[in-house]
Design a protein that fits this description.
Helix 4 packs across helix 8 (159-170) and helix 6 packs across helix 8. The chain is elongated and about 100 Å long. The chain has a domain at 63-181: Cytochrome c-like domain (Cytochrome Bc1 Complex, Chain D, domain 2, Orthogonal Bundle), CATH 1.10.760. With 239 residues, it is mainly alpha-helical. 37% of the residues lie in helices and 0% in strands.
């Protein structure tokens, strides 16, 4: 009799476990009721690209001003993210990427024997030298500046970090001189826009075409007088 009860207990325990497994999801669904949201995810109020494109263009760094004050120690720290693929010491070996000793101001594809991508070879035909502006644009977004490059690095968006890194790379075997400060690259130095159609020209703009104080219908000014008159007219900025 005791043996029969033992097996009955075992079977009962198994059935109880089965009922718990089957019934638990139903009980949980009843207790924790959820409804499908009308809109999935969270709304992020991000500006449209069109609105961003209307902003004033960002001027490139004024290298004559930023290089003398760059933080070389911070630039060396920034290079730490490049060390998985590059070295920058004299005689350093190539890795996944070429050795970068003397790269600033040097030729594109400066490492003989390194297997550069076809995209970099095509870029060399357009811009054969790693100038300061070229390096800055490449480090900002390599795949955008040289489409098809093998370099998978996403880029450095922070301008000061790029300046520090380029300044440090320049200290590694580069003979490129620091250029003179460029006032046209200073903040607020953007060229004034030409007047829109129908808009009144700037004061003095008529002096290039109107006779100087002569009555209507008088002969146009010629010779040195005309030359001195045209020099007073504003020059539209090149685009």
């Amino acid at each position: 009799m005791s043996g029969d009860l033992k097996w009955n207990k075992i079977i009962g325990a198994g059935l109880a476990v089965a009922f718990v497994i089957v019934g638990l999801p139903q009980v949980t669904a009843a207790v924790f009721h959820t409804e499908t949201p009308e809109k999935m995810g969270y709304f992020v109020d991000a500006p449209e690209e069109a609105a961003a494109g209307a902003a004033a263009p960002v001027l490139p760094p004024d290298w004559g001003t930023v290089l003398p004050t760059a933080d070389l120690a911070a630039g060396e720290q920034a290079f730490a993210r490049c060390q998985a693929c590059h070295t920058a010491t004299a005689g350093g070996a190539d890795g996944t990427g070429p050795n970068l000793y003397g790269v600033v101001g040097g030729p594109v594809m400066h490492r003989a024997g390194f297997a550069y991508s076809d995209a970099m070879a095509a870029h060399k035909a357009e811009a054969p030298t790693w100038g300061l502006d070229e390096l800055d644009q490449f480090l900002t977004a390599p795949a955008r500046y040289v489409p098809g490059t093998k370099m998978s690095f996403a880029g450095i968006r922070d301008t000061q970090t790029r300046v520090n890194l380029i300044a440090w790379l320049r200290s590694q075997g580069s003979s490129l001189a620091i250029p003179a400060p460029d006032p046209s690259r200073q903040p607020g130095a953007a060229a004034p826009a030409a007047p829109a159609e129908g808009e009144a020209p700037a004061p003095g703009a008529e002096t290039a075409t109107a006779p100087a104080g002569g009555p209507a219908g008088s002969a146009p000014i010629t010779g040195a007088a005309a030359q001195s008159t045209t020099q007073t007219s504003p020059v539209a900025p090149a685009h």
